[in-house]
Design goal:
heterodimer, A: 630 residues, alpha+beta, 3 domains, six-stranded mixed barrel, B: alpha/beta, four-stranded antiparallel β-sheet, 38% helix
């Protein structure tokens, strides 16, 4: 029997034992193939071509995905190697040279890799259809993406993963060649020790996270670019120390408080957890940060999707809008509408000025076109359109020299805080009292709007030119397209005519794709972080086997064992989840401020989704754990 | 004195139809309350099997087993776990302490699982640790202890619930002679002070000489019983003679 056939035999026997390792490899290949094949899909490319930076985004996402998958494969492989160390030690004990064992292991990893590539690609091709259906459903796209097998993607995925697996097997080979027999024997029996508690780090961790939060919430305007990296740095450092020191501090308190400890199974689970802090804090803090990143990015993209729906009301408060102050033209429009057997349900006629403003935000903003209206008109329109911000609008009446700033309906989010910022309008200085996101003119007049006190408006009006905005809502918009064609024949209206004929397709596609990429990446992150914790816990289960068999002999019932180990397991899922959720809540609240919209609903939704997936992982882990220790 | 353990024609068979071997082949025994009983015999004689059955870790194939008059073949599941928790204590050859707990927590374990008030637990831990000379080691972890200290910790844990019987399976197997002697005198004083029944399996004549009565098992049957009359030295000599007459493991190799 040579080393090669030994490796192959091992591989065949181990398929069952190390099922999850192989499954996670297959999963990585499947995910990557689906993503790459999407890139090569001609339909997707057509949609993507429309917006240039989607191209960039999907490239960045694919690199991120690959980077993460490399980390994931590396992590799973080291777990796999540690599980095998004792077996490897026995070979070494029997006098097989380290390099031969290394070769056996490396060959095994390559076999597993090849299996993963083959099955991953096969499943990838099969699931591609489902994946595309999900894509079409998840993204609010009205484009159709056909089923398509991309040879380019197949080859690219196979080659990429072969390289990853090859490097991995090489690393494993080096690891084994360098290891000593004694380490191999004791690898699965590493002595566990209670960590030393570092009070300063424990305290610092909380301070660091607080500082990070401070930077995040104060990242406004010019400071945004310098504060956000600082916030990330502080929060990541703080999280790391939180798990290293603060966590062990808390566990030490629990261990020494016999009132808590001597309460049923606590004595078992808490002692186990406390002893694992030292081995686990790195993985837990990494998972907490990943959870925060994933939640935030998923929260962001789902908010964007949610926001697209809301934006509709900002974009098109009226079915038809045009600019004209000529009474004859207005009548002509009304007649045309009536000729189509349609009746006007509501109508808005408002005077406005076109002006140029320079807002002093510190970004060095250029001169900007804007419309200006009276506060009294603004208030009336907001009432008629049932603006959700009506109460705030009523409270914020601009005095002379003050203005309200209404962002252009096309803006989704801005990094600029306009409040109390100086603005120059035809050489006069104004202070922005407040800024709102509320329906006003819609996309028919896609400028930001300046709301002024009536007196200020009158003085501006004398300098600039005044126009009249007309918005009409009709009882039936089914044939709006043909009506629009007819209206276009009225020459003075033609240029400014805007009809809400359909949803804005191009932007919907853009948001759809961004949403999909974000959601997809988040899904991969959730599954992979869950699997990382799973691997960690299952390797602990083998260490705990002996402990639980002692406990059983001492009269612990199966139910008590289950209770003890679920407490022990849940902490590994719950702690990073809680820390991640808190981080992401801060991040999302900052984001919500930037978008001038409350994103509680999509954020809550993504948090619940995450908790649900981890809950499923928890149940699976607890079951497997019980099976191992009982 | 009342009888605490009674077995009738206890049998334990291993293997399938064609190839059955009997680890126990009809054991009738009675243990009285407050006894310090030793079980001896060559390897493979069935002494550990017997201990496992009377300590409820294993089940008999046939025959009956009564603990304090209760038929143990009918006790199952949760009730069995409760029985192990409250009625009996265990001392194993390899200590079976939990590495993740201090000596104090290890000793407290059975009562903590039994949801006793924590102050009561702490008092009892102190009492027993004092008795077994573990007071200075309560805050240490098992890996910081010597073999003898570990086994005394295990003995303390076994005593916590104030059990009717303590089962000890080769408790001196992993100890040097000095630690063995220490542990055995601890067991003796436990037996005398708390009137705890102790059943100890051993193949070591020196350890056995601390018992008050020895039961010899051979080929799954009780081969002989001897009682301590006078002092330990004389008892030790008789145990050695008996072992020699039974023909230990050495014969099997010829």
């Amino acid at each position: 029997m040579n080393s090669f056939s030994l490796a192959f035999g091992n591989f065949k026997r181990n398929i069952k034992t190390y099922g999850l390792y192989i499954v996670s490899m297959i999963f990585s290949v499947l995910v990557y193939y689906n993503f790459i094949s999407l890139k090569y899909n001609p339909d997707f490319q057509k949609a993507r071509g429309a917006v240039d930076y989607i191209n960039g985004v999907s490239n960045v996402v694919s690199y991120l995905l690959l980077l993460f998958l490399i980390f994931f494969i590396w992590f799973s492989s080291s777990f796999f190697l540690n599980q095998r160390k004792k077996e490897i030690g026995i070979y070494a004990f029997m006098g097989v040279a380290n390099y031969q064992i290394g070769f056996i292991y490396a060959a095994e990893v390559i076999f597993i890799g090849l299996t993963a590539i083959i099955f991953g690609l096969l499943l990838g091709v099969v699931f591609c259809r489902l994946f595309l259906m999900m894509l079409a459903k998840a993204a609010i796209m009205n484009m159709k993406i056909g089923f398509f097998v991309s040879y380019k993607a197949l080859i690219q995925t196979a080659v990429t993963f072969f390289i990853i697996f090859f490097i991995n097997s090489l690393l494993g080979y080096i690891n084994i060649v360098r290891s000593k027999l004694i380490d191999l024997f004791n690898a699965s029996k590493r002595e566990e020790q209670l960590p030393k508690v570092n009070y300063i780090k424990g305290l610092l961790s909380v301070i660091f996270i607080g500082t990070g939060y401070y930077f995040a919430t104060h990242a406004i305007g010019v400071k945004f670019l310098s504060y956000i990296p600082l916030a990330v740095l502080f929060v990541v450092m703080g999280t790391y120390w939180l798990f290293e020191s603060f966590y062990s501090l808390v566990m030490k308190v629990i261990i020494n408080n016999k009132k808590i400890l001597y309460k049923g199974v606590n004595i078992v689970s808490m002692s186990n957890i406390a002893f694992r802090v030292k081995n686990n804090y790195r993985a837990l803090s990494a998972v907490a940060v990943l959870v925060a990143v994933t939640l935030t990015s998923y929260g962001t993209v789902s908010s964007l999707k949610y926001f697209v729906n809301i934006r509709d009301s900002l974009q098109s408060p009226y079915a038809i809008s045009y600019v004209s102050d000529n009474q004859d033209v207005k009548n002509q429009v009304k007649d045309t509408v009536k000729k189509d057997n349609l009746s006007i349900t509501s109508e808005e006629n408002t005077k406005f000025c076109l002006i140029k403003t320079q807002i002093d935000t510190g970004f060095g903003m250029p001169l900007e076109d804007a419309s200006a209206i009276r506060y009294s008109d603004f208030l009336r329109i907001s009432r008629n359109l049932n603006s959700k911000k009506l109460k705030e609008i009523e409270k914020n009446k601009p005095e002379s020299g003050e203005i309200l700033y209404i962002e252009s309906p096309a803006v989704v989010m801005s990094l600029v805080n306009y409040e109390n910022v100086k603005t120059t309008i035809s050489k006069k200085e104004f202070i922005i009292k407040n800024t709102f996101k509320t329906p006003l003119f819609g996309a028919g007049l896609a400028f930001p709007c300046i709301v002024m006190s009536d007196n200020d408006y009158n003085s501006i009006k004398s300098v600039g030119k005044e126009y009249e905005f007309n918005g009409i809502n009709i009882n039936n918009t089914d044939n709006l397209k043909s009506l629009t064609e007819k209206l276009k024949k009225i020459t003075p209206v033609k240029d400014s005519l805007y009809a809400n004929t359909s949803k804005d397709i191009s932007s919907f596609n853009m948001f759809g794709i961004i949403y999909f990429l974000g959601a997809f990446l988040s899904l991969v992150f959730i599954i992979a972080t869950g699997t990382i914790i799973y691997f960690k816990l299952i390797s602990e289960a083998y260490l705990d086997k002996e402990k639980y068999s002692i406990l059983k002999k001492l009269g612990m019932t199966k139910k008590e064992v289950y209770r003890a180990l679920s407490k022990q397991i849940s902490i590994s899922y719950v702690l990073p989840l809680i820390v991640g959720i808190i981080h992401s809540c801060v991040a999302m609240s900052v984001l919500s401020e930037k978008m001038h919209y409350n994103i509680i609903i999509p954020s809550l939704y993504s948090i619940l989704l995450f908790a649900l997936v981890y809950g499923i992982y928890f149940i699976g882990t607890a079951r497997k754990y019980l099976k191992i220790v009982m | 004195m009342s009888i605490i353990i009674e077995t009738k024609d206890l049998k334990k068979l291993y293997g399938s139809k064609e190839n059955i071997s009997a680890a126990l082949n009809g054991v009738d025994m009675q243990v009285e309350k407050g006894e310090f009983l030793g079980i001896m015999g060559p390897s493979g004689a069935g002494k550990t099997t017997l201990l496992n059955i009377i300590s409820t870790i294993d089940k008999e194939t046939s025959g009956s087993y009564f603990f304090e008059g209760k038929d143990m073949s009918k006790v199952k599941g949760k009730e069995l776990a409760e029985f192990r928790k409250n009625k009996v204590g265990f001392i194993f050859q390899d200590f079976n302490l939990l590495d993740t707990m201090t000596v104090q927590d290890n000793i407290a374990l059975p009562l903590a699982l039994g949801r006793v008030n924590h102050q009561e637990i702490l008092n009892r831990v102190n009492e027993i640790a004092g008795f077994l000379g573990l007071k200075d080691h309560l805050k240490k972890y098992p890996y910081q202890l010597s073999g003898g200290q570990k086994q005394r910790t295990a003995a303390a844990r076994a005593l916590m619930t104030n059990p009717s019987v303590i089962f000890a399976d080769e408790p001196t197997g992993a100890l040097d002679s000095k630690s063995s002697a220490e542990l055995l005198s601890c067991l003796t004083s436990m037996n005398e002070k708390f009137n705890t029944t102790i059943i100890m399996v051993t193949h070591d004549a020196f350890a056995a000489s601390y018992c008050r009565r020895i039961m010899f098992i051979k080929d799954g049957k009780i081969h002989a019983k001897i009682d301590k009359n006078k002092d330990r030295k004389e008892f030790f000599q008789r145990i050695m003679d008996m072992s020699a007459s039974m023909g230990g493991e050495i014969n099997e190799l010829i």
